[in-house]
Amino acid sequence: MSDSAGFNIDDVMYTTAVQEGGETVETILGKIKKLEQGNQRFLEGEMEEMSSCHDTLQIELDTLRIEAIKLEGIKEEKEECYRKLKFQDDESEQEYVRLLEQNKKSMEELEEYRSDIQLLKLTQRKQRMKFEKQLCELMEMHKSLEAVFLPKSLPDEIGRAEDTRRQLLSTLQMKLDQLNTLDEELPEKKEAARGYTCRD
Predict the structure, then answer these.
(1) Which of 14, 97, 118, 196 has its CA 20 to 30 A from that of 132?
(2) Taking the CB of residue 175, how many other CB atoms lie within 10 A of it?
């Protein structure tokens, strides 16, 4: 328990170790240390071997990748060459038919152009005649408006507008008077109608 009791913790550990295996703690720790050193040397050897194997495999992998890239380039070149040859072959096969079709279309287009030119001339002539007619109408309209809105005719126009306004106001006033009269007569007519209903 304590020094005053006659022993300490180290004595207990030493006594227990001797009783159990007959070896001291220092001996056991030494063996453990030797085992750890042996394991470490073994692991270091394994690591060196694995590292060497990894380097070898990495070199082989890099070589295979380079070879794959070269083969891919060759494949792309072959495919490009095949596409070009196929395109040229298709072009050669279609050239004759295309020329015949082009010649036929050219003749048809020539006829269409001739028809379009004739139609365009006719349309332009109609438009020119229509424009000339509209221009004449516009000139006549301008002359009429000029006659209407001459400074000397403005007083007459204003007078006619005033007369029209007075007539409209007079008609409006007459309608309002009639409406007021009806409003005044309406209660009497309602009362008379109500009395008539009661008598019935």
Answers:
(1) 118
(2) 10
Find the distance separating the first CA and the last CA of the chain, reported in whole Å: 133
- By the 10 Å C-beta count (0-12 exposed, 13-18 middle, 19+ buried), 38 is classed as exposed
Q: What span, in angstroms and rounded, lies between the C-alpha atoms of 133 and 140?
A: 11
**Total-model pTM:** 0.27
Cβ neighbors of 147 (< 8 A, separation 6 or more) are 153
pLDDT tens sequence across 52-68: 888 899 999 999 999 99
d(CA 135, CA 141): 10
Give the residue extent of every domain in the chain.
3-148, 157-200
Other CB atoms within a 10 A radius of the CB of residue 24 amount to: 13
